Amino acid sequence: MTTAPYESSPVPIDCITAHLLSFNPVYRTAQIYQQFILVLAFFPLSYFLVFQLWKSNFHGNLKWLLAGYFGTMTVFAIVFSVLEIIFCFLIICLVFLNANIVQGSISFVFIPASVAPRMYMLYGMMLALNIFNFGLSFPLIYKNRKVMRINASLSVKYQLGEVFLSTKFSYSVILVHVIFFGVYVSVNISFKYFGDLVSKDPITLTIVRASWMTMISTYTFAIGPAAIYFYKKMQSRREADRAKMIQMEAKGKKGAKNYDNAIANIWKTATVPID
């Protein structure tokens, strides 16, 4: 597909390109797919937040995860939203500062050529920060695993186990985010600078790039089922570890010591006569 047959037309070439793009079946299918997936993404995320995480009696780490990652308390949400809008506005101003934009935009998914290097640099910085955030999870998990080995009471071990599992849950969700966002940014930048290897025709390459940019909705859909899966897996692991710890504390030398302590506590209990 090319604009060569329309070069003699009085219609501006940008309008012809926009027409060819808008009515291309691949691009239109990608647009429909994006809207459909975004609607579907609402249901697994809502199910996870309302019917699993909100009703969970799990450790406070997940309650804070609900407040800080998937949603926020009212006051914090207002403050954070205002700051986020201001921060995003400043970033957009820096990206488009002194940009020489002389042509109209064909679609909102396209970045003007004059600001593309700065925008892709921003994408790269976001990806690097996500990878750095993911990397911080490793020493945190290592530290939690090390703390779990200390000789403590059953209740302390239970709390430490919940902290460890909730940390692994956060780590798993962050991993899904980094993978999807990393693939999206990498392919997007590759199409920009190495698109000629895919197609020499600019219209076909534009359609491919525009269709790929709609794939970000796939991440929005995938994060919900992934969170549900990791949460159920964590709950099963939690029940198994709790049963294992209770069994260990009830048998052997530790169990005998706990039994003696329980008997001693009964004899130490003071009884008060009822008048």
From TrEMBL:
<protein>
    <submittedName>
        <fullName>Protein CBG08353</fullName>
    </submittedName>
</protein>
<feature type="transmembrane region" description="Helical">
    <location>
        <begin position="66"/>
        <end position="99"/>
    </location>
</feature>
<dbReference type="InterPro" id="IPR002184">
    <property type="entry name" value="7TM_GPCR_serpentine_rcpt_Srb"/>
</dbReference>
<feature type="transmembrane region" description="Helical">
    <location>
        <begin position="163"/>
        <end position="187"/>
    </location>
</feature>
<comment type="similarity">
    <text>Belongs to the nematode receptor-like protein srb family.</text>
</comment>
<dbReference type="GO" id="GO:0004888">
    <property type="term" value="F:transmembrane signaling receptor activity"/>
</dbReference>
<feature type="transmembrane region" description="Helical">
    <location>
        <begin position="119"/>
        <end position="142"/>
    </location>
</feature>
<keyword id="KW-0812">Transmembrane</keyword>
<keyword id="KW-0472">Membrane</keyword>
<dbReference type="GO" id="GO:0007606">
    <property type="term" value="P:sensory perception of chemical stimulus"/>
</dbReference>
<dbReference type="GO" id="GO:0016020">
    <property type="term" value="C:membrane"/>
</dbReference>
<dbReference type="Pfam" id="PF02175">
    <property type="entry name" value="7TM_GPCR_Srb"/>
</dbReference>
<feature type="transmembrane region" description="Helical">
    <location>
        <begin position="32"/>
        <end position="54"/>
    </location>
</feature>
<keyword id="KW-1133">Transmembrane helix</keyword>
<feature type="transmembrane region" description="Helical">
    <location>
        <begin position="207"/>
        <end position="231"/>
    </location>
</feature>
